[in-house]
Amino acid sequence: MLSIVKVPVFQFLGFILLSSFLYSQALVRHYTFVVEDTPYTRLCSTKNILTVNGQFPGPTLYVNKGDTIILDVYNKANYNITIHWHGVKQPRNPWSDGPEYITQCPIRSGERFSQKIILSNEEGTLWWHAHSDWSRATVHGAFVIYPNHNKGSGYPFPKPHADVPIIFSEWWKKDIVEVYNEFRRTGADPNISDAYTINGQPGHLYPCSKSDTYKLTVDQGKTYLLRLINAAVEDILFFAIANHQLTVVGTDGSYTKPFKTDYITISPGQTIDVLLETNQPPSHYYMAARVYSSAEGVDFDNTTTTALLQYNIGNKSTTPPSNPPLPYLPFYNDTKASVNFTGKLRSLANEDHPIDVPVNISSKLIFTVSVNTFPCANDSCLGPDGSRLSASMNNISFSLPSTDILKAYYNNISGVYGSQFPSKPPLVFNFTAETPPTYLNTPKKGTEVRVVEYNSTVEIVLQGTNLLAGTDHPMHLHGYSFYVVGWGFGNFDKEKDPLGYNLFDPPLQNTIAVPKNGWAAIRFKANNPGIYIYIYIYIYIYVA
Question: Where is the Plastocyanin-like domain (predicted)?
């Protein structure tokens, strides 16, 4: 889904002057990314993977709120590539947002692209990743945004002793391009990963991996800020540290009311900031993560990745025991545990960190989110009943164009996209029925956008369906953060459910998971012109 907003010149100039005043201490920082194949050994075998600057995960960038980045990307790989800055709003600068054929053409092999990343009110942990096919499986890294230069510590909590990015990702023994191409060719579910990783390492439970397990060395009696990032391609994960509670203080580049928890649930693309107090007897404690998968009858990677939290004793680290206990993690399909965690997220909503939740809504939208199929000739595909798996929003499965949509809009190139993305489901049925009619499984194909007016206030209700396989649906909106004002199970009731919305301190996020056979309601103000995708399976939103 896409949306378009037109901005008067005086408003644009006012924005520039205001921004210059607010971020007078901001810096312009320059970085270089070289995208190239690099040999890496995991799970007893070596293969080439696509990397940035030879690193997996890629380099962590440290900046301050309001800074601007000039990034030169050199593509030395054999494939096209783009880089997306996940959670960065890029005010009035959609040309550097990253999604191929939406805001830009991909960077071709052997070419260079200079990208401008403009920060505004983001503060905390975000991340960057490739936005071409599945290359983000290995092309990704942390993006740490500290408070303003002139605000001292700036944290709404005591300054931690240190902060550490913790990146979850996946590893396939096969080449990821082969995995993706086979998925596209057969129409079946993609091959599941062979391991999950923490900061690039699978951990001691996998073959040939124990000695390289990621280790975080800490001092007793300190507080550490862990910046958790889920860079897994598809999977929601549970995470915990043995014998330690975590205090959640932020998500998706925004602070939250602190709350203690024994585990966290983190969707693909999401970031969560937690404080770790090293208040246990000096020893080794396992950190661990494994999948949350709610879809019935669908294969998933049921392995567990681990890392070690090791305490210092004087100038020496403790000797690891042969088998430290694993932390408790909820069962793989524990939907209650998943929503119990995410339902606790609340914005700070105080004088230093105010919120601005839209109350009077001018554009109300309802989008169904479904897993679907397309028929194949002679039932020749390997999806259900010989079909090809797909997905849709409001019964439209997105078709990627060959010309980027932003270019088509600004150059008035016709035939690239349509502007008829529906504001509500064209087919109304019992979305979460146990056995919906099978004729609903096949959606339409299209490259459709949704136009929204500049400065309009938007509410989108994302309604999951039980077509083919009811499951949680991770969703990410480019160009904006949004307030999650409500969620629930079953079919959304437009009369009753809004009465329970949280308009006082809803979390400000850019990535959420619509619960299995449930719904989520988000609100934002359409004040950032451009073309931005609302991505579940390549469905887009467009503001110009």
Answer: 35-148, 163-312, 421-534
For residue 253, give both structure tokens. 């580049």
For all residues of the chain together, what is the average pLDDT? 90
Let me know whether 172 and 147 are in one domain: no
For residues 504 and 349, the answer to whether their CB atoms sit within 8 Å is yes
Q: In terms of C-beta density within 10 A (0-12 exposed, 13-18 middle, 19 or more buried), how is residue 276 classed?
A: buried
Domain with 292, as residue range(s), is 162-343
| Residue 274 belongs to domain with CATH number | 2.60.40.420
HEC assignment per residue over 461-523: EEEECCCCCCCCEEEEECCCCEEEEEEEECCCCCCCHHHHCCCCCCCEECEEEECCCEEEEEE
Q: Say if 56 falls within a structural domain.
A: yes
Domain boundary (97, 122, 151) is at 151
Residue labelled with tokens 């400065």: 455
Residues 179 and 278 in one domain: yes
**How many domains, the chain?**
3
In a domain? residue 5 = no
Q: What pTM was computed for the model?
A: 0.93
Whole-angstrom Cα distance, residue 541 to residue 544? 10
Contact 458, 528 (CB under 8 A): no
Residues 6+ apart with CB under 8 A from 455: 5, 525, 526, 527
* Length of the chain in terms of residues written: 544
What is the Cα–Cα distance from 269 to 273, expressed in whole angstroms? 14
What's residue 320's pLDDT? 65
